[in-house]
């Protein structure tokens, strides 16, 4: 149970460190380009062809006034945003990620608004929201009509205070920025991919950053502490503890039941029957231990994550199960049981029956 709890909590913690860094940066790799460069120079097609790039999506970072409040406004392609970055249900209120993005996609003038703005202006889904959007071509703000399509509290690359998310095509028609100025890129090897993109687009003024770099730079309550080193030590300890516990139980069974085992042999039971008696008892204990460890370890992990909910930003949608280590933990118990069973059988063969029976 200690090993299960440790592994599940550590895996969840590490996953949320990655989520926190990705939320700050936007994606595995983010490319920031000058105004009009992505469309004018075909940078999205160029970057999509770089080795290691799995998916890309354009983002237009603009600004708009809600009443007297100037807020960051992001134009996204609702069809491809989910392929290039991670959208979690915890980012949205009132509906999950897929449902909220689908609702935004279905309404060209739709917009996702922060909870704070919804409360301050007493807005509801479907309400008309008149924003003053920055027209980059004229350098002035002008009024554009939107309709509230959902409530958002976190979004990749967005600030932690109030912001809005709209459809890319509709926002571009309003801000005349000449196209998106950000590209979110999904990659299995972010550092290498970011270097390749930087080399390919350096002459176009593109600034590239990877999530590995962001993880090292992000200063937050979760990423300032790295648990990987100490957790690995504790995982090795949990494996050793599991193996030692099974081995100790087998040794105690042989020591405590010496007279019973000798009596069984004396009354005519075969060595195989006596060994089976020992194996079945140890197997029952090991099986029950494995069966009880899983729910108990998960329960303690849930409690720890709930207690530390304020540490995670955003909070995890669910626990992360490290199947590899859990298999190692169960395998250690089963392996020691198998080795111990063989050792027990050999020990029974050398058991001095006469002396053991006379001890009573």
Offer a concise description of the structure.
With 360 residues, the chain is α+β, with helices and mostly antiparallel strands.
Q: Which helices and strands occur, and which strands form pairs?
A:
Layout: H1 2-25, E1 29-32, H2 37-40, H3 43-48, E2 53-66, E3 69-76, H4 81-84, E4 92-93, H5 97-106, E5 110-114, H6 115-120, E6 128-135, E7 140-152, E8 163-167, H7 168-175, E9 182-187, H8 190-201, E10 207-210, H9 211-217, H10 228-256, H11 258-266, H12 271-307, H13 323-349, H14 353-358
Parallel strand pairs: 3-8, 5-7
Antiparallel strand pairs: 1-9, 1-10, 2-3, 2-6, 2-9, 4-7, 5-8, 6-7
Helix pairs in contact: 1-9, 1-10, 1-12, 10-13, 12-13
Low confidence ranges: 219-223
Strand sequence of the main sheet, in spatial order? 2-3-8-5-7-6
Radius of gyration: 30 Å
Number of helices: 14
Order of helices and strands: HEHHEEHEHEHEEEHEHEHHHHHH
> How helical, in percent, are the residues?
40-55%
Largest sheet: 6 strands, mixed, barrel
Proportion of β residues?
A: 15-25%
Structural class: alpha+beta
Average the pLDDT over all residues and give the rounded result: 84
**First CA to last CA: what distance?**
39 Å
Give the overall silhouette.
elongated
Number of DSSP-assigned strands: 10
